[in-house]
Write a structure and sequence with these properties.
single chain, 142 residues, alpha+beta, four-stranded antiparallel beta sheet, 1 helix, 18% helix
Amino acid sequence: MAGIFIITGIALLMTLISGSATAQKVRAPRAGAPGSWRLIGTTQAKFTADHDGIEVVGPFDNFRKVKFKVTDAPLRLVRMKITYDNGAPDEIPTAIDIPEGGESRIIDLRGVGKRSIRRIDFWYDTKGVLRGRANVSVFGMK
């Protein structure tokens, strides 16, 4: 009878050990966790214009940094205005050349405290680009 308890105890211990090892391997940062990038929005920059904007659909989250990814055409990002949920705008000069298929540098948002973004407007230069559109994706990091 004591042998059955010993065998059962060993089997239970082995199950607990293998279960915790599996849980550690599968664990990953949850989406939107601090330090992870989250897609804020996308748009197409038309080369017949010089300005586009992205409305951020809630939750507006507390972002510390943003970056742009561009596909289908290069883009020169001249400046950016971020409008926060409280209505306060933040003008950010950028002057960043983003190659086709590339991304911008990481842009730190100014200030401290809550920075929930409502809208991102950006101005771009299309000199040297004859036609087409650039697909622009904006990512934010908490």
